[in-house]
Write a structure and sequence with these properties.
Elements (H helix, E strand, L loop, with lengths): L4 H17 L18 E5 L6 H12 L7 E5 L10 H10 L4 E5 L7 H11 L4 E5 L3 H6 L9 E4 L5 H7 L10 H16 L4 H11 L12 H21 L3 H15 L8 H8 L3 H13 L3 E4 L14 E4 L2 H7 L5 H15 L4 E2 L6 E3 L4 E5 L14 E5 L9 E3 L8
Parallel strand pairs: 1-4, 1-5, 2-3, 3-4, 10-11, 11-12
Antiparallel strand pairs: 6-7, 8-9, 9-10
Helix pairs in contact: 8-13, 9-10, 9-13
Amino acid sequence: MAVQDEEIRMLLDASDRLVSSVSCVFRRYMSSRIDWQEKMSCVKGPKGTGKTTLILQHIKETFGAGSDKAVYFALDHIFFSDHRPIDVVDYFYTHGYTHLFIDEVHHVQDWSQLMKTVADFYPGLTVVYSGSSILKLSAGQADLSRRQVVYELKGLSFREFLSYEGIADFPVLSLDDILKRHRSLALEICSKTKILPLFNRYLVHGYYPFYKPDVGHFADKLVQVVNNVLNVDLPAVEGVTLPTVLKARKMLMVLAKSCPQQPNMSALYRELETERNMGLRLLEALERAELFAGIDQGPSKLKHLSRPEKIFLGDTNLMNALVPRPDVGAVRETFFANQLKASGHSVLTPEKGDFIVDGGPLFEIGGEGKGFGQIKDQKDSYVVNDGVEMGIGNKIPLWLFGFLY
């Protein structure tokens, strides 16, 4: 049924309010990488990483509030309890709107079919869509692969955290820059701020922008995000029952307490009282939701067919929210792996050392006193030290790898 002018006002008013009120002082790294002129784009990523803010900022700076060409609406709005999304799309299209920004698309059961219809039957319409369920969005991507460009927004890098906090704006560094010029780069950064206390804060609550304005309740809110993945997204995407959801929760907590680890999957399945195929299915789903990150074996070994070589929690904020006193060594390795992978690098586990990156440099991660003992005979090898402002030679401060994006 066609949508009437007086009915659509609710969505237009909501769009104008949100666009008018969004701050453009801080911009995520992805805002400059998106080709906003693509016919259809998807911005996905874990809940709370700033996808909606990124979209609203673009509307404000490109079109302004009250535009008759661009509109934002979210499919979890009460308006859609008795209106079909496709009728709303049709209304805006026939009334001259050229750019639609559609959020929370996963609230529509057949959202991928909706997006295919929009892409195929509304020529000249530019659509950017997003949603807070990375599991649901990932499950429907295959059907849209020829029709869209997908962008994945990660959490804040340490560099972005410093900007978000109003400390200083620093440029993105390449891995090659860090390896070759880390001492001069660290000297310049440390001349402007006390970096180590800020780094320690970031590890606890700096990856997800929603830690503001209430840092004291951040961990509780992050646990709520995890619960939503387990209780809502997992059953919807995987079709699992409540007993299986409880097993997924137990798997998360068992692995969280010992990450990173080389998982004994047979022992884990026995503890969960589940069979191998279901256990792998749960592990893969939790990895797609970015609660876990699997690191495979290096090129000198064949990849194990049933599990990654090492399993990490997705980021250090998750570690601190789920585990009362996370192991400091695990936090260091998780930070390094997270920041390298988020910036697009390939990270594998080698025979010696902790990580091999892009098939080349070898890294050993440790505290202030960590040396080359385990990788002393390996060429193109580096020690990454936590707790130091400056490095020397092939010893590089850990925090500096937070400037890769």
